[in-house]
């Protein structure tokens, strides 16, 4: 049975700035889509293609804390440098992903990569926040650099295209990302008239973002930058690209626990949030300059 579409959302009317290097459209949470409805995903920001121009000043987001969840940055165009207080650092280029587990607490910063910043050019990224269950909220922070070459590859028949499996499994091909709860994250690249038929469990919360191009999804025409929220009914998803297209399919088993969030901290109770602030102010998240 096809997975039913609950609603198709168009791109938000206005972007917002995160630091001075990420010009993003926020798809959730917002007034219509609450975090619990798309759990385990907490937030999706989409930096639709934008040319920041050449600059000697490196744009980005300076040092800030996180606790209790994971951040995932997917690079489509442009390059980003990451640094955190555990000593991890790295650069992601088009097709790469950085997956940071904040866990018990971390400081990090993200900037346009130096050479990319000097030259300028198109910049396109997705940033996701993925929740952690209560039992893993205080897990040790870690960093997973996932290259395009290191992802699971599903070549679709009939010159339809390719799926990069970031997390979860598609057609028996596993993604390299280590996750704390069941999550599927598929970077779908379809040629014009290319088709993909896949499925996600009825119990999973499932969404789809059209990063570029347009497609017909379970019989509905979907244009560029649209966002689909599926009902928890049915499993099969049929996608046919009406032009060369890039899509991001996310599904995950809900974490049915209370969410207490204030800014960069996501815990289960207000008391845990207060503890997170005390730890941050006491310097327990480490040092990053």
What would your notes on this structure say?
It is built from 3 helices and 26 strands. It is mainly β. The strands form 6 sheets. It has a 7-stranded antiparallel beta sheet with strand order 1-22-19-24-17-14-13, with no helix packed on it. It has a 7-stranded antiparallel beta sheet with strand order 2-3-4-11-6-9-12. Strands 5-10-7-8 form a 4-stranded antiparallel beta sheet. Strand 20 (215-217) and strand 21 (220-222) form a beta hairpin. It is globular and about 55 Å long. The N and C termini lie far apart (53 Å). 42% of the residues are buried.
Please state the structural category.
Answer: mainly beta
- Name the poorly predicted regions: none
Order of helices and strands: EEEHEEEEEEEHEEEEEEEEEEEEEEEEH
Mean pLDDT: 97
The residue fraction in helices comes out at under 10%
Give the C-alpha Rg: 18 Å
Count of alpha and pi helical runs: 3
Please count the beta strands (DSSP E, at least 2 residues each). Answer: 26
**Overall 3D shape:** globular
Distance between the termini: 53 Å
Strand order of the largest sheet: 1-22-19-24-17-14-13
The biggest beta sheet, please? 7 strands, antiparallel
Strand content: over 45%
How are the SSEs ordered, and which strands pair?
Elements: E1 5-9, E2 16-18, E3 22-28, H1 35-38, E4 41-51, E5 60-66, E6 69-77, E7 80-84, E8 89-92, E9 97-101, E10 106-112, H2 114-119, E11 122-131, E12 142-146, E13 152-156, E14 161-167, E15 169-170, E16 173-174, E17 183-190, E18 195-199, E19 205-212, E20 215-217, E21 220-222, E22 227-230, E23 236-241, E24 245-252, E25 260-262, E26 265-267, H3 270-281
Antiparallel strand pairs: 1-22, 2-3, 3-4, 4-11, 5-10, 6-9, 6-11, 7-8, 7-10, 9-12, 13-14, 14-17, 15-16, 17-24, 18-23, 19-22, 19-24, 20-21, 20-23, 25-26
